[in-house]
Structures
1.
Amino acid sequence: MTDLPNVDQGGLSWLDASGEHSDIVLSTRIRLARNLQGHAFGARARVNDRATVLERVRKATETVPHLRRAEIRELSDLSANGRRVLMERRLVSRDLLGETEESTGPLSSSGVALPPDVPLSVMINEEDHLRLQALNSGLNLRAAWDLVDLLDEELGQELPYAYHHEFGFLTSCPTNVGTGLRASVLLHLPALVLTKEIGKVLQGLSQMGLTFRGLYGEGSEVVGNFFQLSNQTTLGKSEEDLVDHLDRMVRQVIQYESQARSVLMRDASAVTEDKIWRAYGLLRYARSLSFEELMNLLSGVRLGAGLKLLPGLRVYPLNKIMIFTQPAHLEDAAGRELSPAEEDAHRAAYVRSILSTEGRIFNDEGSDDAPTESTG
Amino acid sequence: MTDLPNVDQGGLSWLDASGEHSDIVLSTRIRLARNLQGHAFGARARVNDRATVLERVRKATETVPHLRRAEIRELSDLSANGRRVLMERRLVSRDLLGETEESTGPLSSSGVALPPDVPLSVMINEEDHLRLQALNSGLNLRAAWDLVDLLDEELGQELPYAYHHEFGFLTSCPTNVGTGLRASVLLHLPALVLTKEIGKVLQGLSQMGLTFRGLYGEGSEVVGNFFQLSNQTTLGKSEEDLVDHLDRMVRQVIQYESQARSVLMRDASAVTEDKIWRAYGLLRYARSLSFEELMNLLSGVRLGAGLKLLPGLRVYPLNKIMIFTQPAHLEDAAGRELSPAEEDAHRAAYVRSILSTEGRIFNDEGSDDAPTESTG
């Protein structure tokens, strides 16, 4: 994308599968909700409040170390597709886009600040005045917390946060009051789904104060066996406790998933291998793919990569496929709007291009070729 | 197969896609039903009759030019799997195997004579004393008729056929009385099926005195969009008329199929291409395939080869896949019995081996590789 030339990897460094357990954990995210004293927040914020908040953040980027040289993008300055690209990269939330039944675009003075060299983003005038977010590859809660905590401290020295001595940080929605913290980890749990243990696991996590969502956060469905696991409460515990608790739980889930993978390979290796290679075959050659089908097939192939059944395949290109086959990314790459049929065709073409390049690097040359693809 | 070392291409020369229209027509078959005077035939034939018939045919191979050097195989001398291999190659009928509810093997003195160098076979003591068959690649009714007619004449000089001056050749089943001729053509009609015109076409053919069956002849279901088209009547017309009539009708059907293929490419090229490449992807990588699924996928890939959408792929290897992935052929290659799950795994492995070799020859090297396959 040409929209973020100054941001490291276009804001996608969390995608590179460099973090711990990245065969099972796609990414770690921690966000803090903050509001500024003296300005109405949430639904009560007026145009004036919002404009002032944006201005104050803009000013802060001159002095706050972690925001220095950050690009501030006002959402109304971007095309509708450009905004969606940011959302698909998980740099801004769906809410910030302002695409609701009542509205077709962002509210005034909505924006995002993206530093060039650290995996941070600050959403401005979302549900709260500020949403500070750190986004890392793999399971990396401690690093994400340290980073966002530092930014929070630096920013708090410039901007007067709304804080109550008893409740903690004040937020637009009461569920965020207290630490304002939500830590979440995006997990790929295909084996727990295949062995039908996922329900039990999620139930247990819910009893431990955790909640799960789909790929796009609140209200989104689970696709491709990706589960976003996060803390439910933000009040009454320290940030470190919340983060440590989630970390312990996630490690437990990773262990369950690993065990389920072993069980699959022990009790149903033929069926599992067949399933994985079929998914690979379809991704490799299909001429049309919906995003949902893609995610389901990708889930199989990702499992295959994790189980070393597709030994030439790295996780990073698979992660890339997830991001770059989303609708706004496909339109961005095409440089124009795409009809639904065109979108599915472009998606399939992108997947083929990645898988054939990926194959070429690791392939036992010549043993596994295909007929020449028609270019007509 | 080691069973037919002296027969050209193991009796599979009809498979090599050398004949006319071989992208649509797999093969042409003409058979003549004959019985010998002085011996009861059909269900009334006793062990003695059958033994004498076999002996007389054996003797005839010494003098009849087209049977000279023919191998005569008595079915009871073959293993059950060896018999099924012959059936899967369409050199003998299912009936000759004698695998009915009452019986687990062939009746006494059942046999087949296979000349080494011409695509002929003579079944002995099937429903009739003799079934003379010529089997050719592609659409080739005239050549098949000439060949089987010659054999019939030669054999008739040695053996006294049961013949009635009014009815013609006498046969066990009244539907064969007269010429005793059945000419059939095995057609691959995927586009007529996809465009849902097949019903209308088959209905029209039925009004023209033709009938259709599946891959294995009478009573077998249509799989993989292969239709075996043949004459219904054998009485009251000359052999040449029957053959010419079928030839005209088949050419008409080929034209319908070609038109339907053009329509598909005009109105639904994206969907068709996607379908074909998906079929290819599954065949290329699946680890387990039932014969029925294989045939359905192969039908798509065969259509793709015909439409030049899979330009590296020849029809001959696809024909080979059809034959060598049948159960008896898989067991024959494995040298042992296979469980159903093993059979599906061996089938998939065979398909992969053929498609990867086939791809290698025609492939734009390096553009389309896959991850190294696990050999574990």
Note: Chain B has two domains: 13-187, 269-365.
2.
Amino acid sequence: MSSQNPVIGYIGLGLMGKAMARNILKAGYPLVVHNRSRAAVNELVEEGAVEAHSPAQVASQVDVLFTNLPDSPDVESVALGKEGIIEGAHDGLIYVDNSTIKPATARKVAEALTEVGVISLDAPVSGGDIGAREGTLTIMVGGPEEALERVRPIFDVLGKAITHVGDCGTGQSAKAANQIMVAAQMIAMSELLIFARKAGADPQKVIQAIRGGAAQCWTLDVKPERLFEGNRQPGFKAYMQAKDLAIVVDTAQEYGVPLFSALVDAQMYNAMLEMGMGELDNSAVIGVLETLSGSKLIEEAQV
Amino acid sequence: MSSQNPVIGYIGLGLMGKAMARNILKAGYPLVVHNRSRAAVNELVEEGAVEAHSPAQVASQVDVLFTNLPDSPDVESVALGKEGIIEGAHDGLIYVDNSTIKPATARKVAEALTEVGVISLDAPVSGGDIGAREGTLTIMVGGPEEALERVRPIFDVLGKAITHVGDCGTGQSAKAANQIMVAAQMIAMSELLIFARKAGADPQKVIQAIRGGAAQCWTLDVKPERLFEGNRQPGFKAYMQAKDLAIVVDTAQEYGVPLFSALVDAQMYNAMLEMGMGELDNSAVIGVLETLSGSKLIEEAQV
């Protein structure tokens, strides 16, 4: 990279990716973008980005290339497939994946790209669309620390807590660990709210009573008000939570980690999807318990 | 109660009860105490309390009577048994139970005491021995709100967050709800730490990376450092956590609440007890997963 601002590429302009790419653009970096659907590309091109027509074309033009894609096979295809990053790769390119995928896939992609001179960082994020827009994401980074230091100025416009966890894949392991706790809080909140409702205690009073003590957590701080208002719209979509828990389950199987509560939580999200609620917020998993208990959190949930 | 300070009774001077009784004494209230074992009684008598030789004797001398006992049968026996509170009860006595017991037992005791003119409040607490000593407990109150208002000045020396949840028993329901979330955080922390360890990520780095995001909770704020130092001493003893989860399970059965994750968490604590770790801190439940995974959190856990 020269002393001028490096040229950045961003592939995958979904809810998260578009907001993150925009923050990079706003910070003054030249930006090349690529996305399967056109609307987000057009938006960013109007704001000053340049379009490229394949991942290979992005890779050939940039110093640092970001991706933000739905799942492990998408990343593998965009990185290593036909017209993929690997076909436009050049020596010294730094590849940063902001997707949440399997640690094993992150390692596979990094190893293949190493062969063509590319340094890879797995850098999944937490903090949702609000964090993405406001540049306050938590970023968990696996890969060579010196590569992280070189791209840190760009990370600083995306997030506020950037932690180097370890070798390639460990950023994804940290994200999976994060999702174990997030899911546990969501399911526990659902269970305790239905418990309170059926035991004859006002769930709103119960939340008020317990949220300041040892039960305190991000989920109890943020989600109950939305549920009490009958708002189950995302936020973080349940099918993405289910996908992330599938990564947890697969990875636990791979490494021989006996998980109990996390497996139950994964099944609750799988049930939620089968019941047709996958597009709702991850806190709307309470709907599974409402059905199973024959009891609504509020009289007329405006789901 | 006269305009002078009311006379207070406190029965059950364990780790929590003794600290709470002491705060009442320090605030200038005349205090009558009773306890099965003598040491704690002697301590408080030296500090100015008066001893009584049965719950009935305490009840006959005081305006407000607190209990803090291990489990539901203990409360039922001290309140309604031979030489129990009911035998010394008088019209206008306010009875406050700080124990964590079944909501059903709280209601049974309150109904029996109503017959002899006693008003009952179930007022379980959260915040541990530190909260008890420092007077910063979270207190969840069920029972008549006007009775709570009359004793609120005393509650104010015990805790900082005092919430009236609803009718008799709902304080206990709120505490059970609280324990669903606390247990979920403890088990999720254990699972994610072992997951990180086995997936080749440094557990300390993972905690550092995730604790500021959506996974943030009291448990991740407080417990990992102790575990990384090899310290598994209580804190809040695991057998008490197991007892509280048994209340959750019993009460869920009584009210027809289908719980999934909370039942798994309860089983993890039951296993912990059977494995001989019941006297350790509730965060030491990670020991169950260490055994099942053949993997230690730290090289030489100084358990």
Note: Chain A has two domains: 8-167, 174-293.
